[in-house]
Amino acid sequence: EHLREEKPEGVENECVEQLAFADRVLLNKCDLVDEPTIEEVYKAIRGINANAEIIRTQYGEVEASRLINIQSFSLENVLKMDPEFLNTDGEHQHDASVSSVSVRFEGELNHQELR
Question: I need a labelling partner for 60 at 20 to 30 A (CA). Which of 6, 25, 89, 100 fits?
Fold first, then answer.
């Protein structure tokens, strides 16, 4: 649904942008739809990003080791996809309804405790 959402002139479709740059895609609630629908979503994702690993989930459950410390970001690969990625001078607006959170802490993370 959000992949096809039309945005006002100059506003990025955050769903498409995030898929384009993703190295992992969590496809959640797979237990609630039939296989042809899942395949349709897979094809749509592959049309935007042919390389991302697509992980099917139910209830958002996924092994933390598949997400944390995977060291998959490559600025070189991003610049191949979008040579203007580092250019902050151009006109560029994000969808205000999309946000993110990050957390920093000292010490080691016990990913088993995240369950």
Answer: 6
